[in-house]
């Protein structure tokens, strides 16, 4: 596997080199956290697709295809639907707000009283998302180098922490573009056709497998509904996704660039399911469905191609991991630490004060600290699915209602938002303890309780100050104060 090792090593060294180059561009808070808010359509589409299609979408998507056939595409398909909905209905308004975090949006909408609590919930979500991505390094490096799990997590995690800390969002954007190209070539253009050919083509796959493997709804209606509820709605409100929306150079870029990325996700979902179905024909008795990706890559691909496809899997993991890491650090610094020390700034008041406190150095330090925390947590945890489920249940159960309510219902109040976050979050935690982490009931009942409390408390409390709503409408319309860097032409 000398050629494969060379491909992987060159790829990893390239990621660090791009991170070093990105450090030269990240000279301000806006450049470091949101790439100066000036990405053009090409870079925006590529990086958005890269962050949402991580290890779970690649290795997990193939595993679901191995277990359920074509209907295994529904998990990743739900992610694509969520990205399409975000892009078409909300992304332009979100981009015009000129904020850095979801909690800052809640403060603008409700009058500055929802930030810390929502920030803690969002921080827990982004932390667990980064942890689950980091755990996936163990699977890939085990296939490559037969490496110890802990060493693999430290190696993969350290590379991501290094380039993310160096250049912030610029480094992550540039590495994500490389990762997007590698994933497209490795998974869609190489692994997909080779897997189908090795399995004997679609006619042989249909002859070898039960008919339910080719039923689009074979995975079950309740499972599909849960995927849509968790992942589609999760795409609408996650800090890791919003932080990419904030990088768009224009409303048009945010809307159409995101639509292209969402469509790409739908194609990627089907590709993963087909690869998994082919793996079922080739290896009908694997111990674990999640081994399908690594097994078919290791045994069926020729030298060199195998290294590129494994680099594609590594790219998928790294893109999600780095996006979740910078989101986690941004929330920790801007929504929790800065608020606790009473030094919150937004684009409208962030010029000289940013330079005085050296915002870039502070955010860089938080990425490093959060990166170490993510690596240590990943080493301690084993079950990726449970960790990811906890993250999305907390996110959707606690924050979906106050965020969408703030965007869609002008009668929603700060008290209603805080009550929805608290009740929804606590209900999800309690129900997971009662029904089990992987049960569907926690997200169903947690979301309903959050919605009920939000509506009842909002109607029972005084309406939001008209001045707050007026300022909110101004920002939504793009007439609020903009950062100086926003005037720079967009990058394609």
From TrEMBL:
Annotated membrane topology: Multi-pass membrane protein
Gene3D superfamilies the record matches: Sodium/glucose cotransporter
PROSITE patterns: NA_SOLUT_SYMP_3
Protein keywords: Membrane, Transmembrane, Transmembrane helix, Transport
InterPro entries: Na/Glc_symporter_sf (IPR038377), Na/solute_symporter (IPR001734), Sodium:Solute_Symporter (IPR050277)
Taxonomic superkingdom: Bacteria
Protein location: Membrane
TM spans (from-to): 6-23, 44-66, 72-95, 116-140, 152-173, 180-197, 217-238, 259-283, 308-332, 365-384, 390-409, 416-437, 443-463
Family: Belongs to the sodium:solute symporter (SSF) (TC 2.A.21) family.
Record's protein name: Sodium:solute symporter
Upper classification of the organism: Bacteria, Bacillati, Actinomycetota, Actinomycetes, Kitasatosporales
